Amino acid sequence: MLVDVGSARLFFEVVGESLDTATLKMEKRPTLILLHGGPGYDHTTLRPYFDRYSNTHQLIYLDHRGCGRSTGARETWHLDQWADDLAVFCRTLGIDSPRVFGQSFGGMVAMHFAARYPARISKLILSSTAAQFRLDETVKIMRKLGGDRAADVSHRLFSKPSQDAYDTYGDVCLPLYSNPNAPEAASFRERAIERPEVALHFFSDEMASMDMRAEIANITCPTLVIGGTLDPVTPTVCSEVITDSIGKNACLHMFEGCGHGPHRDDPDGAEKVMRRFLATKT
Fold first, then answer.
1. 25 SS3 class
2. How far apart are CA 197 and CA 163, in angstroms?
3. Contact between residue 142 and residue 151 where contact means Cβ atoms under 8 Å apart
4. How many CB atoms lie within 10 A of CB 78?
5. In degrees, to the nearest 5, what angle opens at C-alpha 35 toward C-alphas 126 and 99?
6. 267: pLDDT confidence band, cut at 50, 70 and 90?
7. Which CATH class is domain 2-132+178-279?
8. Which of 17, 124, 130, 146 holds its CA 20 to 30 A away from the CA of 53?
9. Chain-centre distance of CA 144, in angstroms?
10. Residues whose CB falls within 8 Å of the CB of residue 72, separated by 6 or more in sequence, listed in order
11. Beta partners for 19?
């Protein structure tokens, strides 16, 4: 389905009912909006991992502007617009106080949204993401996991983004994102719609200088920050910085042996932690 947000049309899919038919009064179920990473991939990178939450939530998978099946001109590919898109999307569809999950780049959008519109969100889960990109730490962990080649390739992509650097990074570094003991974890990319131009634009234009540490202190909703201890692109320090910057409203859970996306490397463990957080009354 597509919804018009002004200068773009956003594609979304809904899984699960909004009203609980098992209750006598058809009680309204909470909405969980799921924001994919990238940018330049689409919402299918989060499926089927989160479909299991449809027994307690209405799930909305959203393709960011410029990504997947959504439209949007190049000059609008920036965090302010992506966050505002989410606000317009919720207002247009009448979604009040959603819960929001953001993976990687989706977490950056989710943080920016929660800081700009603190009264419009009830709970926030930030997974394998960063408020400030740490190329130094990324290079260090890439070298640990993949040797000098991986370190050099990651430094090249994020310091001088280009299509050639992007392609090489995909071959050399992306395999290091997932725990090798979870062979199915990396398969999410196989069916995704990939738009490298969006990623290259964001890496060049905004991510290198991005610093949301002061901004996210404005986040007032309960926030769960999760990450993997073997994540080479948003390493542990990034999750710690987010938690410290948000302050008392945030809690941190790191998953040992997991890479970029605990929900993929440890689906059952991640589900246990996230369900406990989502079930807690605010």
1. coil
2. 8
3. yes
4. 16
5. 65
6. very high
7. alpha beta
8. 130
9. 24
10. 7, 8, 65, 66, 81
11. 28
Arithmetic mean of pLDDT, 113-135: 97
d(CA 278, CA 141): 31
Give Dmax (Cα) for the chain: 61
Which pairs count as long-range contacts for 88-95, CB under 8 Å and 24+ apart, including other chains? 88/5, 88/6, 89/3, 89/5, 89/10, 89/12, 89/62, 90/33, 90/120, 92/3, 92/4, 92/5, 93/3, 95/31, 95/33, 95/60
d(C-alpha 110, C-alpha 79), whole Å: 10
Determine the Cα–Cα distance for residues 121 and 107; give it in Å rounded to an integer: 14
Alpha-carbon Rg of the chain, whole angstroms?
18
Distance CA 85, CA 168 (A): 32
Contact 232, 157 (CB under 8 A): no
User: Exposed, middle or buried: residue 114 (CB in 10 Å: 0-12, 13-18, 19+)?
Assistant: buried
Instruction: Quote the DSSP letter at residue 23.
Output: S
Question: 154: buried, middle or exposed (CB in 10 Å: 19+, 13-18, 0-12)?
Answer: buried
Q: Say whether pLDDT at 57 is over 80.
A: yes
- Rounded Cα gap, residues 160 and 246, in angstroms: 31
pTM for this structure?
0.96
Angle 140-105-232 (CA atoms, 0-180°, nearest 5)?
Answer: 20
Give the Å distances, CA to CA, from 235 to 24, 135, 141, 145, 240. Answer: 46, 10, 8, 12, 9
Taking only the tens place, the pLDDT of each residue in 62-101 is 999 999 999 999 999 999 999 999 999 999 999 999 999 9
Q: Can you tell me which residue has the tokens 């991005």?
A: 210
